[in-house]
Amino acid sequence: MARKTPVLKVTNLKKAFGPVVIVDGFSLEVAAGEAIALTGRNGAGKSTVLRCLVGADRADEGTVEVNGTRVSETNPEIRRDVATVIDDIDFFPDLSVVEHLDLLARAHGIPDADAAVDEVLHEVQLVPQSGQLPSTLSSGQLRRLALATAFIRPRKLLVLDEPEQRLDTEGVEWLADRLVEERRRGLAIVMASHDPTLVQKVATRTIRLGDRAEVLADE
Amino acid sequence: MSKKSRKLIRSTPVAGEAEAEVEVEAVVPAAPERTFFFLPDAPPLEVDEHELHGLMKLWRHGRATRSIGQVLQDSYVMLFSVVMIGAMVVSVVLRAQGNMAGCSTDACASGRLLVPTAMVLACFAVALGVARLFGPVLASAAEGFWLMDAPISRRRLLRGRLVLPLLLSFLVAGLGTALVGALSGLAWAQVLAWSCAAALGSAGLVSLAASEQTRERVVVVKVLQAVFAAAALAVLLVVVSVAAGWLPTTFVAVAEPATWLFAGVAAAGLIGMVVLLQLTVARLEEIRRARLVSGGSLVAGMQGAMFALDFGLIRDILVERRMAEKGHVKPTRGRGLGLAALVWRDVERLKRQPSAFLGLGMSLFVPYAVDALRMSQLNPFISGLALVAGLVPFLGSMRVLSRTGGLARTFPFKTAQLRTATMAVPAMLALVWGLAATPAFIGIASTGADRSIISGLSVALVTSLAGLMGAVRWVTAKKVDYQTPMMATSSGALPPGLIFNLFRGLDMVVLITAPLILQLPAYWSLVIGLIVFWALRGSFNMADLQAEQEQAKRELAEAKEGRGEKQKIPRPGR
Predict the structure, then answer these.
(1) Taking chain A (219 residues) in consecutive chunks of 10 residues, what is each chunk's mean pLDDT?
(2) Which residues contact B240 (CB under 8 A, 6 or more apart)?
(3) From CA A178, how far away is CA A123, in angstroms rounded?
(4) What is the dihedral of CA A55, A59, A63, A65, to 10 degrees?
(5) What is the residue range of B394's domain?
(6) Are residues B447 and B397 in the same domain?
(7) Strand partners, A8
(8) Which CATH number among 3.50.50.60, 3.90.226.10, 3.40.50.2300, 3.40.50.300 corresponds to the domain A6-218?
(9) B533 inside domain
(10) Which of A117, A120, B19, B504 is deepest in the core (most CB within 10 A)?
(11) Is B325 part of a structural domain of the chain?
(12) Cβ(B212)–Cβ(B220) below 8 Å
């Protein structure tokens, strides 16, 4: 199968915290329509890799490129192309659920923001909570809101850190279907997950991180 | 559990302990059928609330690593400094009291009565606000989880908790009012009357808040708080009006009755405190655990933030709590696309925070009051600081977008664009504030500033720019980085950022207003202000620049390696 142009290209990524090397020599290419699942035990470096991919952490060595542009968290092109749901997401304490989505849709220049917000709000099943402030949402609802912020906006690469966390069974099923649909539409996905069902359903490649990165399956 | 604690617990003097031990030895069979005991080799003790407190104290004592003597020995420099500074403050206060008492004009006499009166009313409002925020009766999360479940009397466990808030309100209000009274030039008998009124009145109001807490009501406390705050503001307005000559100075005539009035307030506060305390203690048994633990967790969060001197985090905790209480808002539709959507959302937000306008309005009194008090030279600095406090609530978007990178990453804009957009609405407010404060900088009182309209307007605008930049600096403050090299101090090693946290916001106001204070032309301040704006909007990001530099070095090294040039290998150290 001919390789497509990579949306994400990681070359020899190295990240250490003091003397502890978390990941070393990690390379990866993700093309449009591919979904990569990072698996591995706790502390294997999944979240660290994802944080380096989106520019939240700076790699000690190696390069990360999205569509040929070196990743920097403050680069607006990267911000436009990469949608992330990792642990450092924050919310405006005085804006309701629907206002968060409305603001994000408008900031990304979506012309019919109202329709887009309604659609995503229904999909993540937060319609009854649309007027609630984030501090009153349950952890599962907060996770749904975080996922909604990724789905409301245009994106070429989706980076998710354990997206199934705190979701109920029905929610995980919905997420898996949605990610498969995203992948089929040509979105590149990189996610870390501990849920084998989600990984099996969504991922086209699985990389187990541990002592040494290992490609387990290739579609 | 430490050996010392275990030993102390065993030796805890419990009534009838000796007899109990004898009985245990006599009654307990040789092979007792014990499944669980707190201590494996001792019979279980029935403890009451008092003993439980004693036990907790003993455990804490057992875990202490340093004695009080060692702590004092280690911080002797700080103690010495505190004593020295305290002595200097007292000396300055005494001298200022003497000077102010020397001013015998009607305007001085009126101000002398009104300023401490405003302070008393402000103390009442603050005491009620803080008491409502924390409880005032509270318990830690651990106590709520472990102790409140036990079959013990909450009244007996919690009644001691009332002492600290009462004592704090008494001391802070009393000392604060005494200081303001002395600085205003009140006679010592009057200082005593005003400060007793503030101290006992505040303590009485805290008792009222505690009594309302046991009834799960907040309406009375909220209404009283608003009334006292409005009254304090009104009195301050009168002070400014009298100083500016807009109101007659007839307050001098009521000096004698006012002293008696405040003595009466003090007596009423004392009686109220005693009566309400009785009622509160009687109802402590019914107080809900959630209501107690909520205040305790707030204190714990704020304590953590205080250790890092992270005032921004303290404000975040309070905002989060207020929003959790509010819970729900009527959603409004946004407008515009791109950065305009962010600006419009900030405009929409203004409707949701009327209390922030109250703060901004109060800060507008400051330039007038400072001018009326004949301190026009320092007016830009003092008013700039007041404006920082007034503008911070309007910079909520900027605060959230800068405290973690997560939310900022979801917006397709540069950091500088985001900051500029979130500064737009506060900048408009600062501009309006500057225009409204212009008369104060031109000069309202005969002894105040005497500037032309253009000069006064430019000083007012520079002050509003200083206030805005100070507020931006305050909300964008980063957390203290404990991974940086530490500074050696008499209190132990401290990260340098911890100290600088104290001056965030203040530094920008000093920087921008310094030329005005030094009587240089206003355009110097304007130029400095524009440079500060350029830096604070994130035009240059040090982390990005550093990364780019490192990247360039790495690429250069790679290129050299590719060309086969000799690489210098550092000699190993001997």
Answers:
(1) 74 87 89 91 89 88 88 86 87 93 93 91 91 92 93 92 90 92 92 91 89 48
(2) B365, B368, B369, B372, B444
(3) 10
(4) -10
(5) 339-552
(6) yes
(7) A30, A66
(8) 3.40.50.300
(9) yes
(10) A117
(11) no
(12) yes
Q: Does B403 touch chain A (CB under 8 A)?
A: yes
Q: Do B320 and A93 touch (CB under 8 A)?
A: yes
CB pairs under 8 A between A and B: 130
Report the alpha-carbon distance of residue B218 to residue B208 in Å, rounded: 10
ipTM: 0.89
Q: Are residues B300 and B344 in the same domain?
A: no
Residue A24: which of A151, A217, A213, A218 has the closest Cα? A213
The answer to whether the Cβ–Cβ distance between B331 and A131 falls below 8 Å is yes
Q: What is the pLDDT of residues A26-84, one digit of tens each?
A: 899 999 999 999 998 888 889 999 999 988 888 888 889 898 888 888 888 889 999 99
The DSSP-derived string for B179-247 is: HHHHHHT--HHHHHHHHHHHHHHHHHHHHHHHHHHHTT--HHHHHHHHHHHHHHHHHHHHHHHHHHTSS
Give yes or no: residues B373 and B286 share one domain.
Answer: no
Pick B547's closest partner by Cβ from A58, A102, A110.
A58
Amino acid in position B425: V
Task: Please tell me which of the candidates A55, A104, A133 has its beta carbon nearest to residue B328.
Answer: A133
Helix (H) or strand (E) holding B478: none
Identify the closest residue of chain A to B395 by CA–CA distance: A92
Residue B177 belongs to a domain: yes
Mapped to the 3 state alphabet, what secondary structure does B501-523 carry? HHHCCHHHHHHHHHHHHCCCCHH
Closest chain B C-alpha to A81 CA, distance in angstroms: 8
Instruction: Say whether B410 sits in a helix, a strand or coil.
Output: coil
Interface of B with A in 517-546 (CB under 8 A): 541, 543-544
Q: Give the CB-side neighbour count of residue B526, counting CA atoms within 13 A.
A: 9
For the segment B412-428, the average pLDDT, to the nearest whole number, is 93
- A114: nearest CA partner in chain B: B333
* Interface touch B410/A80, C-beta < 8 Å: no
Query: Which residues of chain B does A58 touch, with a Cβ-Cβ cutoff of 8 Å?
Result: 543, 547
Cβ <8 Å between A135 and B329? no
- Check A93 against B349: CB less than 8 A apart: no
Query: B197: distance to nearest CA of chain A, Å?
Result: 38
Number of domains in chain B: 3
